[in-house]
Specification:
It holds the Pfam family FAD_binding_3. By secondary structure, this protein is of the alpha/beta class. It is built from 13 helices and 18 strands. The chain binds flavin-adenine dinucleotide. Flavin-adenine dinucleotide binds next to helix 1, strand 2, strand 3, strand 12 and strand 16.
Length: 386
């Protein structure tokens, strides 16, 4: 590793790994981010960046650049397939409650901003890395790269939900489990007049999120219990009776550009998010169901806190245990809440769905009091020093 600063190796070039690289470089570490893919084509069409994550991006020096890329404010809420609103609000209202806007972005924009904020030459693509020795206070960690082993004062494993690092060095940590649904994600060509909304049907959830350039980020998840469509045509047929613009958006995307994934998550984070000099961040540590849109946001928080709490010259192993003690309760709580919110979206019985919708309508009437009370601890979070 070049340079004289203590060396940090980040395994994985997703949102969590890139953000960690930026945070550590800003803290004075000599960072190398190693990504096995040969290009940074992010998986996932769009991403919702909540206020807690926007403030994490501020801590990484890219908050304002990210805000500049985001859609204008406006109306948003929760709707029924026939278009009736269950919960309706304005982005400005939520921003005043949570202290910042929620940003809707092309994933490539977020990844591009983070990659550009890394020191020149610190990103290594097309290389697979693995932790050979997690190290101790008195011994560096060892990371195996295609051209040999390197010592590292700090390793960040941001290697995703299927993390080899977690499986190898935290063998008692639970692995991924199915979430009970399959999701499609895509960005459509521009369509004017689309209002941001999530739409809850029987076992099917669709989200339509207008982006700043007029394109629309769409996601649709279908519960196993209602039968997962074989292809996009079958999905279009299932949603043909939903209110516009849902059918029009589905019609405007070609099959090749839609991503399809069976949703999986970790039932709990590892007992500690760190072993030796190795920190587990993002989905590697706490992959969660996407119902709160917080998976990437929590990865950004991990990175911001890591940059603030683990400094060159520290006893890294001890600092990482303190970092884990700070982060673990929070990510576990967000994982639990995400799983809880997912449950009623998987319901298929007409009676249960009617009760659910009546409950959501009541929440809609009392949005300020109920909705924001549950979300406030998540969305109002601030990074250290903010
Ligand atoms: C349908 C859906 C919608 C979502 N919507 C949102 C949203 O709106 N907002 C939000 O905040 N979150 C959302 N999420 C969650 C979010 O996508 C993830 O939490 C986030 O992308 C995790 O980032 P990561 O960097 O931890 O992992 P990943 O993005 O999985 O990145 C891991 C990287 O590590 C690389 N890698 C793995 N092993 C190695 C190795 N040995 N060597 C080198 N490289 C390696 C991989 O190639 C990959 O690039 C959503 C998720 C889903 C499924």
């Amino acid at each position: 590793m070049p340079g004289t600063a203590p060396a940090a190796v980040v395994i994985g070039g997703g949102v969590g790994g890139l953000a960690s690289g930026v945070a550590l470089a800003r803290g004075g570490w000599d960072v190398t981010v190693v990504e096995r893919a040969t290009s940074l084509d992010p998986v996932g069409a769009g991403i919702v960046v909540a206020p807690n994550a926007v403030r994490s991006l501020d801590a990484l020096g890219v908050g304002d650049a990210t805000r500049d890329l985001a859609a204008l404010q406006g109306e948003f809420g929760l709707r029924l397939p026939d278009g009736r609103w269950l919960v309706r609000g304005r982005a400005e209202g939520a921003a005043s409650v949570f202290g910042d806007r929620t940003l809707m972005l092309h994933r490539a924009q977020l990844v591009g901003l983070l990659a550009d904020a890394l020191p020149a030459g610190s990103l290594r693509l097309g290389a697979t890395a693995s932790v050979t020795d997690p190290g101790t206070t008195s011994r560096p960690a060892v990371v195996s790269l295609p051209d040999g082993d390197v010592d590292a004062d700090l390793v960040v494993a941001a290697d995703g939900i299927g993390s080899d690092t977690r499986a190898r060095w935290m063998p008692s940590a639970p692995g991924p489990v199915p979430g009970g649904s399959t999701a499609w994600r895509f960005v459509t060509p521009p369509l004017p007049g689309v209002v941001g909304a999530e739409i809850w049907g029987r076992g099917i959830v669709a989200g339509v999120m207008p982006l700043a350039d007029g394109q629309v980020y769409v996601y649709v998840s279908v519960a196993d219990a209602v039968g997962v469509p074989r292809d996009l045509d079958e999905l279009r047929a299932r949603l043909a009776g939903w209110h516009e613009p849902v059918p029009a958006l589905l019609a405007s995307v070609d099959d090749g550009s839609a991503l399809r994934h069976e949703l999986r998550h970790l039932p709990a984070p590892p007992t500690s998010l760190a072993v030796g000099r190795v920190a587990l961040v993002g989905d590697a540590a706490h992959a969660m169901l996407p119902n709160l849109g917080q998976g990437g946001c929590q990865a950004l928080e991990d990175a911001a806190v890591l940059g603030a709490r683990v400094r060159p010259g520290d006893d890294v192993a001890a600092a990482l245990q303190r970092w884990s003690a700070e982060r673990r309760p929070r990510v576990e709580n967000v994982m639990r809440l995400s799983a809880r919110v997912a449950v009623p979206t998987l319901w298929t019985s007409a009676a249960a769905v009617a009760v659910r919708d009546a409950g959501m309508r009541a929440v809609g009437r009392w949005t300020e009091a109920l909705g924001s009370r549950a979300l406030r601890p998540i969305m109002s979070w601030r990074p250290p020093g903010d």
